[in-house]
């Protein structure tokens, strides 16, 4: 697997939030991490990014063990992360937000900007507008586009559709499918489990900080026990 984590155990203040969790994602693949509130989904993602100190486990990127690397060093190796909240600079314009995202890779800034405008047409339309004036769905597009400005190999998304309408959620998932075509490995934490599995190649379901189920997206979507417990029947 291109990006993987094995047996991750850790938490905050000495209390484990995740225990022996394992995940993996290949290039050109969407993998979702699902589960009820408090299951440790976002904590697991932060552990893979190096934000959380681990008691046990290791993280590997393209065959290289990066477990001991700091977050900024993991980003330099090609990992981009879009947090659920505070993921844009509201006082900057949309274009300025994207330019900020290219701080590690500004050699082809103009070309990359045009690529983002093509991928997210609303961003081109709003490029000179302050990001704080945008709708929730538009802000999420800016946040994702900014993360893509570094041309990452891995894109990590924490609740990308949180707080948006069903119509906007569908639109955001369509954008994520288009990003997948760029041969990027996409790892996504999502609360909208059913909709996430519909676009995911594979998925993991966490319960109380541990791997409870894993498999192909359509398998998890159609398993009657999983549907009853996590997908609303």
How would you summarize the topology of this molecule?
Elements (H helix, E strand, L loop, with lengths): L2 E10 L2 E11 L4 E5 L6 H9 L4 E8 L2 E2 L5 H6 L2 E4 L11 H8 L7 H11 L1 H5 L10 H13 L5 E5 L7 H15 L4 E5 L3 H7 L2 E6 L2 E7 H6 L1 H7 L3
Parallel strand pairs: 3-8, 3-9, 6-7, 7-8
Antiparallel strand pairs: 1-2, 1-4, 4-5, 9-10
Helix pairs in contact: 3-6
Detailed description of the structure:
This protein has 233 residues and is an alpha/beta fold. Helix content is 37%, strand content 27%. The protein contains 10 helices and 10 strands. It has helices at residues 41-49, 71-76, 94-101, 109-119, 121-125, 136-148, 166-180, 193-199, 217-222, 224-230, and strands at residues 3-12, 15-25, 30-34, 54-61, 64-65, 79-82, 154-158, 185-189, 202-207, 210-216. Strands 6-7-8-3-9-10 form a 6-stranded mixed beta sheet, sandwiched between helices. A 4-stranded antiparallel beta sheet has the order 2-1-4-5. The longest helix has 15 residues, at 166-180.
């Amino acid at each position: 697997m291109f990006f993987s984590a094995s047996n991750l155990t850790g938490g905050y203040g000495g209390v484990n939030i995740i225990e022996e969790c394992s995940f993996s994602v290949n290039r050109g693949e969407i993998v979702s991490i699902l589960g009820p509130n408090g299951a440790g989904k976002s904590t697991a993602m932060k552990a893979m990014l190096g934000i959380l100190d681990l008691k046990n486990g290791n993280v590997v990127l393209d065959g290289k063990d990066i477990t001991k690397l700091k977050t900024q060093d993991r980003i330099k190796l090609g990992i981009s992360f879009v947090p659920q909240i505070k993921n844009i600079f509201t006082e900057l314009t949309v274009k300025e937000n994207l330019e900020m995202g290219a701080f590690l890779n500004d050699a082809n800034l103009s070309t990359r900007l045009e690529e983002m405008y093509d991928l997210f047409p609303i961003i081109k339309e709003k490029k000179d507008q302050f990001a704080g004036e945008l709708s929730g769905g538009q802000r999420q597009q800016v946040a994702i586009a900014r993360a893509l400005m570094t041309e990452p190999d891995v894109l990590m998304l924490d609740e990308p559709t949180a707080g948006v309408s069903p119509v906007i959620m569908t639109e955001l998932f369509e954008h994520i499918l288009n990003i997948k075509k760029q041969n990027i490995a996409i790892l996504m934490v999502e609360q909208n489990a059913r909709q996430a599995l519909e676009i995911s190649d594979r998925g993991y379901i966490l319960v109380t900080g541990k791997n409870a189920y894993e498999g192909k997206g359509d398998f998890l979507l159609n398993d009657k026990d999983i549907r009853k417990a996590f997908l609303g029947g």
